[in-house]
Amino acid sequence: MVREFNISSENRYQLIDITDKVEGVVRGSKIKDGLVLIFVPHSTAGIILTENESGLKQDWLAVLKKLISDFDFFHNKIDNNADSHILSGLLGQERTLMIENNSLVRGTWQQIFLVELDGPKKRRIIIKIIKD
Ligand code: ZN
């Protein structure tokens, strides 16, 4: 089954915790065991797993900005968001997690984040669940 929801970002770079929304989709599926794919169909956003702690979220943004700080990007001549595309590709635009007992298998400090890299924008998140 496939489900989707939208997330609106407020800043150009932003980490948004979508764990509860994904858990809700998994619970609603009634599927006990399987896999869930979390996909953002945009080339200027990413999906990561990390801890939801305010300092760490700032650290992520600082590292991402530093990674793209020393380049004179060709793509910026037409679109001015090469940094967003590059970081999106590096982070990845999907993650796959296991489902056991109708719930996500993840560590205590593993939350699922949409990483906005060219906001503010409205982003689609597509969830595909495959039953084992
Ligand atoms: Zn572009």
Helix proportion range: 25-40%
Main sheet attributes: strand count, strand direction, barrel closure: 5 strands, antiparallel
Return the domain count: 1
Flag low-confidence runs. none
Notes on the structure:
It is a single chain. The chain is α+β, with helices and mostly antiparallel strands. The chain has a single domain (20-131), classed as Jelly Rolls. Helix content is 27%, strand content 36%. It has a five-stranded antiparallel beta sheet, covered by helices on one side. Strands 2-7-4 form a three-stranded antiparallel beta sheet, with helices on both faces. A hairpin with a 2-residue loop joins strand 5 (94-100) and strand 6 (103-104). The radius of gyration is 16 Å and the shape is elongated. The two termini are 13 Å apart. 23% of the residues are buried. The model has no long low-confidence stretch (mean pLDDT 98). It binds zinc ion. Zinc ion is lined by residues 75, 79, 81, 85.
Keywords:
single chain, 8 strands, Jelly Rolls, alpha+beta, three-stranded antiparallel beta sheet, binds zinc ion, elongated, 132 residues
Write the layout of secondary structure elements.
Elements: E1 2-8, E2 14-17, H1 19-29, E3 34-39, E4 45-50, H2 54-67, H3 82-91, E5 94-100, E6 103-104, E7 111-116, E8 122-131
Bound molecules: zinc ion.
Zinc ion (ZN) is lined by residues 75, 79, 81, 85.
